[in-house]
């Protein structure tokens, strides 16, 4: 079992325990804020299950039907997770507004609920920190989305805890649904960020500027071995990156040397940006005879006449 799959399984286990505990406590206390947190954790559990499926499928190698691999499964999974979070937020808002219209309702044992929320927040913080670390090491969008789900749950859990504590001190029962609305607003904000991050790669958007800068810097290190490069294209599918470009080389250069140059540039890019596939199309220089790079090519004297098709 690889690191990503193990992390996804841990997320499923922790979310299952939290959903059951929040549902039980929320039902017993008649607390809409805790029930909203249970719904939130239920969506986190669904997200964890989706993340587990997606990292397992995305790890499969390219095949006859998927020549570019299965990386975009992670992006699809992240998009679904974001939609689920939006749905949860709308559900919470509906219940909270109904409760506010009624002026709130009696919540029993608010301090017990606050303690449960504190424990849930600590557990989610530890699990989300672990998921963030694994997501960074393995470059997994699905695990990063799952980690953000849980980290949002940390903030909302502590928010509910503070609301229940304030209710205990003041006796204002409207605080419970009011906190639920704040929870919903935080969930919507997180869902928007996840949706944007997961959806954009499905449209083959270019890699971030900082990553393209790294690629260009690596190519520039070999500037004395080629004439120029152009048509640089980049995209991402899950954790997989695809990079392709045209490299203009001296017209006299031996093909074996050009091949080795392209391989070397590709290897350097892969070392700097893991999980990257690089395709370099080499083409001969068509500049005039006074091209300084072509003129300095040691293979110039061995050159043979070019074909005139």
TrEMBL record:
GO molecular function: cadmium ion transmembrane transporter activity; ferrous iron transmembrane transporter activity; zinc efflux antiporter activity
Gene Ontology BP annotations: intracellular zinc ion homeostasis
Keywords, sorted A to Z: Membrane, Transmembrane, Transmembrane helix, Transport
Pfam families with a match to the protein in the record: Cation_efflux (PF01545), ZT_dimer (PF16916)
InterPro entries on file: Cation_efflux, Cation_efflux_CTD, Cation_efflux_CTD_sf, Cation_efflux_TM, Cation_efflux_TMD_sf, CDF_Transporter
Subcellular location per the Swiss-Prot or TrEMBL entry: Membrane
Domain Cation efflux protein cytoplasmic per the UniProt entry, residue ranges: 207-285
Membrane topology summary: Multi-pass membrane protein
Annotated Cation efflux protein transmembrane domain residues: 9-201
Keyword Transport: yes
Transmembrane segments: 12-32, 38-55, 76-93, 113-132, 153-172
Keyword Membrane part of the UniProt annotation: yes
GO CC annotation, single: plasma membrane
NCBIfam families per UniProt: CDF
Homology family: Belongs to the cation diffusion facilitator (CDF) transporter (TC 2.A.4) family.
Protein name as it appears in the record: Ferrous-iron efflux pump FieF
């Amino acid at each position: 079992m690889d690191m990503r799959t193990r992390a996804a399984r841990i997320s499923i286990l922790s979310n299952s325990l939290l959903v059951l505990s929040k549902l039980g406590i929320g039902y017993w206390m008649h607390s809409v804020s805790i029930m909203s947190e249970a719904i939130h954790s239920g969506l986190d559990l669904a997200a964890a299950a989706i993340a587990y499926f997606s990292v397992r499928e995305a790890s499969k190698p390219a095949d006859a039907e998927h020549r570019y691999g299965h990386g975009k499964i992670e992006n699809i999974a992240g998009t679904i997770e974001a939609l689920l979070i939006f749905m949860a937020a709308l559900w919470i808002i509906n219940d909270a507004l109904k409760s506010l219209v009624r002026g709130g309702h009696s919540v029993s044992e608010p301090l017990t609920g606050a303690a449960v929320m504190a424990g849930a927040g600590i557990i989610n913080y530890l699990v989300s920190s672990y998921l963030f670390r694994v997501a960074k090491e393995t470059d997994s969008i699905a695990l990063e989305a799952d980690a953000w789900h849980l980290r949002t749950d940390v903030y909302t859990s502590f928010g509910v805890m503070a609301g229940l504590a304030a209710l205990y001190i003041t006796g204002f029962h409207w605080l419970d649904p009011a906190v639920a609305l704040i929870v919903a607003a935080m969930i919507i904000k997180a869902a928007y960020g996840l949706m944007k991050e997961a959806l954009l790669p499905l449209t083959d958007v270019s890699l971030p500027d900082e990553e393209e800068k790294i690629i260009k810097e690596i190519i520039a290190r070999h500037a004395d071995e080629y004439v120029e490069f152009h048509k640089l294209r980049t995209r991402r599918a899950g954790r997989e990156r695809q990079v392709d470009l045209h490299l203009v080389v001296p017209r006299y250069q031996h093909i074996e040397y050009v091949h080795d140059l392209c391989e070397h540039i590709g290897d350097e890019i892969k070392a700097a940006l893991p999980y990257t596939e690089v395709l370099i199309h080499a083409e001969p220089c068509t500049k005039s005879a006074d091209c300084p790079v072509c003129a300095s090519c040691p293979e110039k004297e061995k050159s043979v006449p070019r074909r005139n098709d």
